[in-house]
Amino acid sequence: PYIRDTVRQMVDDGVKKVFAICLAPQYSKWSAERYFSSFRQALKECAAEGLEVHYISSWCDHPCLTDAFVEKYEQAIERLRQKGKDRVYTIFTVHSISAFYLDEGDPYAEAYEKTVRKTVARVRPYRWYMAYQSQGMIPVPWLGPTVDSTLEKIACYGSKTVLVVPVGFVSDHIEILYDIDIDFKEYAKELKLDLLALPAARNAAVYADEPAPALDLLGFTHLLRGEMLLAERMLTRAIQVDPLRAQTQYHLGLLREAQGERARALAAFDAARRLDPEGRFGDLARRSYDRLLP
After folding, report:
1. CB of 96 closer than 8 Å to CB of 136
2. Claim: this prediction has a pTM higher than 0.85
3. Which residues contact 262 (CB under 8 A, 6 or more apart)?
4. pLDDT tens digit string along 15-49?
């Protein structure tokens, strides 16, 4: 629905308080502010200026947003590693805007950098770049560098694997499904590059407030699938939430054993058997502990 239609529906439903958020995490006068302006105009047209409205302008470095990007990135990297591709070149992207806005003090580029820095600090890419995509057709200067020019730079190093991470979008639409999945992939192929497009973060789970059993289940599921990075992330967070849960300690021991970390596996199995001396997971941990002893 259009913004005006939604405002009219809210009035009909008797809504009193509204939180308005633009689903572009990085605030810009060119994007988010235009939507907010349209929303304010719709309030006037629908005689709804009495609504209590809270505008969420920028959420570029919100911890849950970073979690979502990190989850998607680690899943992609894990799949690539299973194919023997360890050295991956990463390109982070957002939608380009007119460079004129930056001359007027627009915070967009700064917000973009905040998003990337938060993500990079967690995932530590092999090599990474920042680029702007989907430049418009209006004959004005647009923010760069472009994705095309960044691909050309990477191609100078030879045939490489490239992962494009669109951090300016939280849903899959034309800028991802066509610009990245089709246009950039075709150009990368011409440059003898293997390009993988990371899906938007729309389906990422946010684990900040999950209870330990849920985190443990997710971690063990990832372990069974061979997704070691994600398994470690979930299980270690489950331990942080509840360090006295024997089942999680046992699963962590299995993970450490699969990773070839014998001493850490023994420590986790030992914790599990002490926490649950008479129970099922204590017994499983005891058997695993004895099996790993020299």
Report:
1. yes
2. no
3. 256, 292
4. 999 999 998 999 999 888 999 999 999 999 999 99
